[in-house]
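Hi support team,

I'm filing this because I wasn't sure whether my run with calcium ion finished correctly. The job status page said complete, but I'd like someone to confirm that the output block is well-formed before I use it downstream. Pasting the exact inputs I used:
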Amino acid sequence: MRFSRKIIFILSLGVVGFFGCKTSEKSKKNLALVSSEKDWDTGSRPNILFILCDDLGYADVGFNGSKDITTPNLDMLANNGTICTSAYMAHPFCGPSRASLMTGRYAHKFGSQFNLPTEGDESKGIDVSETFISKLLQQSGYYTGIVGKWHLGHQKQFHPNQRGYDDFYGFLGGGHNYFPEQFKPTYLREKANGKNFIWEYLRPLEHNGKEVDEIEYVTDGLSREAVRFISEASNKKDKPFFLYLSYNAPHTPLEAKEEDLKLFSHIHDIKRRTYAAMVYAVDRGVKRIVEKLKETNQFDNTLIIFSSDNGGKLAAGASNYPLKEGKGSAYEGGFRVPTFMHWPNVVPSGRAYDYPISSLDYYPTFAGLANAKIPVEKQLDGKDIWKPFLKNENPIREEPLFIMRHRKGFSDVAIRQDKWKALKVYQQKWKLYDIEKDIEENRDLSSQNPDILADLIKRGSQWSETHVEPRWFHIEKEGEQWRADEMPNFEATFRLD
Ligand code: CA
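And here is everything the job wrote out:
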């Protein structure tokens, strides 16, 4: 295929990736090489459809082995594409994970380590000096849209329409209730009562800054709007599209339609049953989206990526089997997520890709596919994985993948390099796992491999030097605690004892 061959050729000339300041000169050279050698027809660039679920567990889709939750439409795409078995997000909970996804950088490097404040303070957002992937693609001639959850700032300067999205339908907060017949009257009642702060989960959805009257179950409403966007995009003949479809499902509140619940009556646990029905509603929506892509003759030129912003929340009915723990954890269950890529005749079908990839890689990878010029000053932490991904090779990294989640008075850390994973949680001693052989993290190999562990810890410590102070805390008390505990206290975290 002409297009894919050209892409492989260009990418083979230089990897568009940054690994912090130390190697930026080398990366800039690579960038310059890509820019000067590019010669392909920009009209053949792919559409990119990024479907992100919220708190979806590793084992909660058919293509990753779920026995009780059926996802036939996602499975069809996954099985006709490539399933990424070791796909990681850059943080184990929502806000920092999404901030990393949009910027291609660890959220700790620009002060977004915590979820945005609640309690009425909606003044904060991701630093406007950070160029989002959407902005880059928009500037490169893509028609860009986001449908669903934002969670990166409420103020105008942080709004999706200011961050590179031509079209936004959804809600700005960290989640939303699902039934309009429930959230609309509650919102109106609170408004009539003069309540000056109404919970974001209850507020009206919006379309490009204007309130809309959503009448469908929210997951269905978001699928409908994705279909609308894809339809509109098909009329823009000179522009490929980038759609970030950011479902809030199956994030709490656990609310599902009766018709979907009936399909899962065999699940006795009511939480699990409701959660299953919510996942199924996403799957129903994906069917409509695929149909629209085919109907508008865009299916064959669309890269579809499906993933989740962090691991499943066990207390909300999710399963991350065989991974340990879940959302919020530095164990694999916290941030290894169900993921596939699909693109007919380009992405290999019926294959599993087992090498680790990170959500930080999407920025440079999408930029490469879009032939977008990344500004030389833009810092990135991931790498363009497209070529090794297609060839089923390891995307060799100069730097390990890191996870750091701050808790009260200490931090949990995971450091993965190839088959090794160093882990420190709950102020316990550092441990070392061969994560390829021991995905359940049961066999600590630190005493047999002290040098490997020491090296990974050293890399983690060096990485932590690039962090800046949090620019906000989720709740005020969290900030008080942070200061009282003299956090982040990296010395204690990276001490080998
Ligand atoms: Ca989440």
